[in-house]
């Protein structure tokens, strides 16, 4: 049975978003025997967190037979809160060799906003794809949603950015200056939170794995809480 930790990260918002929460769920890797129970756990965590919006960060499926499970899970999440999604590299691999973007279609059919088509706007809160960020300082609270931390662009404006992809390195021997070792030797973004010139970059450790090995690196959901 998969169990997810819920990590809460405080973020400075605007007056209109104070007290709001955005739940970030990434790197599901559905389609393996060890991710079979993950869909139920994702919905359980979302209901417990009671967010105002849900951002799905890609790498949803590793096998095409899991696409119907993806659609059902997105549909249940969208009943909890307005939901948006982007694709990850594993999703693109599943779609390779087909003319259909089956992951995008499943997310949209489940009721999610596909951020590559345009942002999700909820009053003063905007969730935008990392390649669709405002260059000028926006009045509203913008959350940048990326699959990988390296995809968060410099020179754009956001209140917070969220990304996954790295799984925390899956094994954490120790943490120094906010960076997880040995994972940081492969990516400088292997950590939980980084303060950038634009705003904080929050990196989730992922909800599932293609290779089911973890050491002192629990799978997690991340809740941004605006102050």
TrEMBL record:
A GO MF label: hydrolase activity
Organism domain of life: Bacteria
Residue ranges occupied by any Calcineurin-like phosphoesterase domain in the UniProt entry: 21-158
Pfam families on file: Metallophos (PF00149)
InterPro entries per the UniProt record, alphabetical: Calcineurin-like_PHP, Metallo-depent_PP-like, Metallophosphoesterase_sf
Name used for this protein in its record: Phosphodiesterase YaeI
Species per Swiss-Prot/TrEMBL record: Rohdeia mirabilis
